[in-house]
Amino acid sequence: MFLIADDDRSIRQLIVAMLDEIGVSDVKEAASGVEALFLVDQYPDQVEVMIIDLCMPEMDGIELLRALAERNFSGRLVVISGLDKSVLRGALEVARMHPLNVVGALPKPIDLIELTKLLQRTVNLTGKADESFRNLQLDDLFDAVMHRQIKPYYQPLVDIRNEKVVGIEALARWEHKTLGMIPPDIFIPMAERKGVIYTLTNLMFELALKDFQTLKLLGYPLQLSFNLSATLLNLHKLPDNLLKQVEKYEINPEEVILEITESFGIVNDREAMETLSRLRLKGFQLAIDDFGTGYAAINNLLNMPFTQLKIDRSFVTDASNNEVAKTLLESCLRLSHDLELEVVCEGIESEEDLNLVRRFEGTIAQGFLISRPKPFKELVRWLESFDSIVKGSDSK
């Protein structure tokens, strides 16, 4: 469900009409922040995307963002405003500090082309999850883990300076026997809530290491990126267990980059700091994933032993057409260079995205322009036929 919060009825009607054009019909409207919050409380599990105007009566957009954070709202947010861009940038920073999942921002008067692009991208990010997914139970998930229905797919990472593949990221995919492919944003949170995430992580890591060993034997000198839930960082035995697994497959831990998938809650957490530090001592590389969307992300970089920064796709995809995203992307890249961190730009979906990252001196690119996530056998075929998709894009 989409929820539009704007006191201007004509703006709400415009957005409703444009959503209908791209196939979204489940839309609610609110003329104030108070009314929007009432609808969020009424449909707590159904509001997937909110479009919020900053200037509204009774409760302004900033107050609404705070109230959403207090309710642990997990949907995606688009912010719009007729005020100057500095206010819009400030609102985005407030949203990310809470933390809330912001996918874009637009100034008023609204550019219809830009609005269409942003709404389409938001729909693509959100997806249209089958209602049957909502009926999945813990037994379904546990059965999937035990029968290895959840498998790693791999997305390549390319160094745009020399046009070479430098790594792959392992991404969990659930191939359900009746429901088809179940999105990770459905089952990963369930695994974390239900205490299955450790078992799932062990399975995924084992399968990914086995495939990675095969790639090494085939002569591909890559790095393996692997997502690690922050909920596991309080496990004292985690560093030792992960080291045993890499040693089993004769892999150097320095070839493995562990991505912390959610930074919220690890700042000032003694156990998390100990675990991260011990992982580095054992040789693993550490990446902060989705940088810019989590809680106190700057503190994470300054105080914790990360070696890589992955800039969230919301700063990258179509950033050439979004001044706010472009500014944030440039700032993140400059920060990573100043801190001497390796940086990966996620969400490269067009040559425009790629050229902008190159212009801002980005180094490693990941996204659909290069390759969608693939099963292992397809990845091997892709690597064999890779023909530098980034080559010559500056001249186009």
What is the alpha-carbon Rg in Å? 21 Å
- Coarse shape: globular
The low-confidence runs, each spanning 5 or more residues with pLDDT under 50, are 388-396
Structural classification: alpha/beta
The CATH topology of the largest domain: TIM Barrel
The helix content, as a percent range, equals 40-55%
CATH architecture of the largest domain: Alpha-Beta Barrel
CATH superfamily of the largest domain: EAL domain
Number of domains: 2
Largest sheet: 8 strands, mixed, barrel
Cα separation of the termini: 39 Å
Strand order of the largest sheet: 6-7-9-10-11-12-13-14
Please identify the top-level CATH class of the largest domain.
Answer: Alpha Beta
Please count the beta strands (DSSP E, at least 2 residues each).
14
Order of helices and strands: EHEHEHEHEHHEEEHHEHEHEHEHEHEH
Q: What is the residue-averaged pLDDT?
A: 83
Tell me the fraction of residues in β-strands, as a range: 15-25%
Q: Specify the number of helices.
A: 14
Summarize the structure.
With 396 residues, the protein is α/β, with parallel strands linked by helices. The chain has 14 helices and 14 strands.
SSE blueprint and pairings:
Layout: E1 2-5, H1 9-21, E2 27-30, H2 33-42, E3 49-53, H3 61-70, E4 76-81, H4 85-97, E5 101-107, H5 112-126, H6 138-146, E6 150-159, E7 164-176, E8 180-182, H7 184-194, H8 197-217, E9 223-228, H9 238-248, E10 256-260, H10 270-281, E11 285-291, H11 297-303, E12 308-311, H12 323-338, E13 342-345, H13 351-359, E14 364-365, H14 376-385
Parallel strand pairs: 1-2, 1-3, 3-4, 4-5, 7-9, 9-10, 10-11, 11-12, 12-13, 13-14
Antiparallel strand pairs: 6-7, 6-14, 7-8
